[in-house]
């Protein structure tokens, strides 16, 4: 089904139907994405101020058969926010829909429009004595509509779930231009198919989220942080199970760090202090957030003692101050930047069943060794089975030297993930980058159901064409 | 689209394609449902032993254009499991698919076939030192496939979520007979539309769940229970917020009890001991489950003291033994039976936003008073905004005396719920009972999207025809 380009004439038609200043020509920033893999086509930019205006835009795009690319904070890592191919699209930015419509601390609910920046939601929750637990590197510029459209993950998933688990209701414009008023604040609602969960993670291909009712949590009164040296990668899982047995849901982060991460920090960011004399092969950063009645440092001491006895850990540090806790987090949070400075040959955002993690790490290393001599930095949200498994050149070589191997490396890693029942996109989504991976690895019954749903809800194929599913 | 009846000839065709004993004539129990509102048509009974056999049955039903009614434990309260109208169906019972395929305590995962009885899953989790927190009155006969198909709720939702929140992956047969192998154990997986959440809560209208990967939790080491007398219904919400501030996620149940519930118990089940000299107008049952490091009774004492100071509670009991805790639960769990013995005129499984609960209770009482003189028992999972709001005749009168008022009462309650942004089916689903309510109260954009999805995935309309959406 061929789409028409968003032409100046189309822009004029839109401009006549919408308030002044809604329609514009997109600046360069709307055509870029963080990793520089895709250059978007310009087309026309729309910056609506209400769901009603979004509905008008989608309806008119449908009539004109012009593709619509929803645009949030532009921080996505898989090219879901730019259209490098096909007819030039209508870029629909939610940046002007930034109202926090409601904060209801007693209900633990916050209602925000799609364009609110994630950090602003965190702040509004904090001001109300509550926690909005979605937390990720791009939170200073990512917008909640995009976080939901991509079902964002981040560091709080272990305790609080993915973005979809933090959403009670949605307002959205469907591909036919109808507004779905689904902004419910209900914890229980079994009236028909769960359209909310269908739109979340659909990356704008089934409609545009315009507002969301979000679930807040009590703020943990006290926080404890530890950096523990573990026996091996397998010990991470046993330690996690032990921690959850001892401390239940209070375990809020459980992040794996490999020696390679410390080495990259030493190499590229010497200002980040590493608190070990000998760099450990494997370590985990654990955070617990407890109620006032429980001393988190004491709980972590008890965990450390039990884990030492079980031979799971050999050494470790329990933060004795908030500052020391932040220092531990600085290490973890600086690793992606260190990676960027080194320059990866290939990066993988994968998940496998928890029990398969040690096997994955061992086997992936062996298979990659056959392809060449690489440095591997494997780190991330091990408590969720989600690893960032990134492959780097040896010192003295550059990523460009391995350019021709990139596809083989990616296939090697992704094939193994698939064999182990894992996912080749754990938290970043499919976008345009992984459309081929989705076709290769997704169960055929699911893929055909996805295509049938897409065709049913968006028969003209105008919504984010080419993302998630190949445009037909 | 007219369906054909499941005839003896069709039964023979199926029998020839499937192992001996798979195809049968349904006994009466497959045609009944707990509230006796619907009598199902007999048709043909199939009891497959594998997803492959389910796929064969669905494919052959599709070719013959025979409707398929999936059947779990038969405990549903909205008639989703029986077909009283239209062509006689193929009743597809999952009762022989009862394998627990895997228990992985370190991963907190259990993989069960759809026919496993909920209590057996709870038991298997317990044997592995884990908790499967889905808990509801029918757990001794309800099967997990049905629990998921209806997104069951129950008493553990406040802490652990609804059935959908406890499911990591599904194996299911789609309406075209394809098996979707989606039995992932992943915590994070952003590869395409979330088919799992679409099938969960679809009540068998988009396919048949044949197995599920379920999320287990650590077992709380210690449990505390309290029965607190609250100032009024509004105080329940403030008390809940206070409890969660003090104790975070350890609050695992928060159940509202009205004086009427105690009165019904005294009237019909005098063996249930009521631990108050003066029956309180409103009370709440609170359960907390903590790690070993925290004394739950002490935490409840602290909550009681703070709530007393805030004027939220006036009296209360904190269980001093496990037995006393169970006694408190016996009160709560006996209320539905007492209700049955009294005989309701109309029962409502509704939810409203937490903040709207006090207003709902007040306004519903006033509106109903205009319709007649009733006794109202309002109780339930107030922490989830989910109330069972049931209307009874005054003493000396029977439900039959009010038969003609039933529809008016239901509409009165449901209209108010809808005005308040609530749901007319919080946890029981739509089934056949609430198809009209769904049409009346559901947002038109959502309803048309639901119909489009149904038509796309099940173009012949064979899957549980007449449930959720009117058969077309």
UniProtKB/TrEMBL annotation, chains A, B:
Q: Which PROSITE patterns match?
A: FAD_PCMH
Q: Which UniProt keywords apply?
A: FAD, Flavoprotein
Which GO terms label this protein's molecular function in UniProt? catalytic activity; FAD binding
Residue stretches making up the FAD-binding PCMH-type domain:
38-219
Q: Which cofactor does it need?
A: FAD
Q: Which Pfam families match?
A: FAD-oxidase_C (PF02913), FAD_binding_4 (PF01565)
UniProt xrefs under SUPFAM superfamilies = FAD-binding/transporter-associated domain-like, FAD-linked oxidases, C-terminal domain
Looking at the UniProt entry, the stretches that span the membrane are none
Q: Name one GO biological process term.
A: respiratory electron transport chain
- Give the protein family: Belongs to the FAD-binding oxidoreductase/transferase type 4 family.
Report what the protein is called: FAD-binding oxidoreductase
């Amino acid at each position: 089904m061929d789409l028409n380009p968003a032409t100046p004439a189309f822009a004029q038609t839109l401009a006549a139907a919408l308030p002044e200043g809604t329609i514009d020509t997109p600046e360069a920033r709307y055509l870029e994405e963080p990793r520089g893999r895709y250059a978007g086509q310009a087309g026309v930019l729309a910056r609506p101020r209400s769901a009603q205006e979004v509905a008008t835009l989608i309806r008119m795009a449908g009539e004109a058969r012009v593709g619509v690319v929803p645009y949030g904070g532009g921080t996505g890592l898989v090219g879901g926010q730019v259209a490098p191919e096909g007819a030039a699209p209508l870029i629909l930015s939610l940046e002007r829909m930034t109202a926090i419509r409601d904060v209801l601390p007693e209900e633990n609910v916050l209602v925000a429009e799609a364009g609110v920046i994630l950090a602003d939601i965190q702040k509004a929750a904090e001001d109300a004595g509550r926690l909005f637990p979605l937390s990720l590197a791009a939170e200073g510029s990512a917008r909640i509509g995009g976080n939901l459209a991509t079902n964002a993950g981040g560091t709080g998933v272990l305790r609080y779930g993915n973005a979809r688990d933090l959403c009670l209701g949605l307002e959205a414009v469907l591909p036919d231009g109808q507004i779905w008023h689904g902004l419910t604040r209900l914890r229980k609602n079994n009236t028909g198919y769960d359209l909310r969960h269908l739109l979340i993670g659909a990356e704008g291909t089934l409609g545009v989220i315009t507002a969301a009712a979000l679930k807040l949590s009590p703020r943990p009164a006290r926080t404890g942080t530890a950096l523990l040296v573990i026996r091996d990668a397998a010990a991470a899982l046993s330690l996690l199970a032990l921690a959850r047995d001892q401390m239940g849901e209070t375990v809020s982060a459980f992040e794996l760090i490999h020696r390679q991460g410390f080495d990259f920090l030493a190499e590229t960011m010497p200002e980040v202090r590493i608190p070990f004399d000998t760099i450990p092969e494997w370590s985990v950063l654990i955070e617990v957030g407890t109620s006032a009645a429980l001393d988190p440092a004491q709980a972590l001491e008890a965990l450390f003692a039990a884990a030492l006895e079980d031979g799971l850990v050999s050494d470790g540090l329990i933060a004795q101050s908030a500052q020391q806790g932040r220092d531990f987090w600085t290490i973890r949070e600086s690793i992606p930047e260190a990676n960027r400075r080194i320059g990866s040959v290939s990066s993988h955002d994968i998940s496998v069943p928890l029990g398969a993690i040690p096997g994955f790490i061992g086997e992936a290393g062996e298979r990659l060794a056959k392809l060449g001599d690489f440095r591997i930095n494997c780190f991330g949200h091990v408590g969720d089975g989600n690893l960032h498994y990134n492959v780097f050149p040896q010192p003295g070589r550059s990523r460009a030297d391995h350019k021709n191997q990139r596809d083989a490396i990616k296939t090697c890693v992704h094939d193994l993930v698939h064999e182990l029942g894992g996912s080749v996109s754990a938290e970043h989504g499919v976008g345009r980058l992984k459309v081929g991976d989705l076709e290769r690895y997704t169960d055929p019954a699911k893929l055909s159901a996805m295509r049938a749903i897409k065709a049913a809800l968006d028969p003209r194929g105008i919504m984010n064409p080419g993302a998630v599913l190949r445009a037909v």
